[in-house]
Design a protein that fits this description.
about 30% helix, alpha+beta, two-stranded antiparallel sheet, about 80 residues, elongated
Length: about 80
């Protein structure tokens, strides 16, 4: 299970879920990296909803993104290039 609000490029270690070791006893760990895809080809209504969402985030003056730039900023930059 992936926790809510997990950011892209996060790596989870699943202990004992990897492949069996050739030289030692036991099973290795499985490393899983999270990949987040940004939606593309949004229609006008979907873009407006994202814009409203961004306004709601900025109105309460709280930092909702643990990274230096938010995912919405990246999405906005992507769609401005279309």
């Amino acid at each position: 299970k992936i926790p809510a609000e997990t950011q892209g490029n996060k790596v989870f270690r699943l202990r004992g879920k990897g492949v069996k070791s050739v030289h030692r006893r036991g099973i290795g760990d499985l490393l899983c990296q999270i990949v987040v895809e940004t939606p593309v080809k949004l229609d006008k209504k979907q873009k407006e909803l994202l814009h409203q969402f961004q306004q709601a985030l900025t109105e309460d003056n709280r930092d909702h993104a643990p990274q230096s730039s938010s995912w919405f900023s990246k999405a906005k930059q992507f769609f401005e290039g279309l």
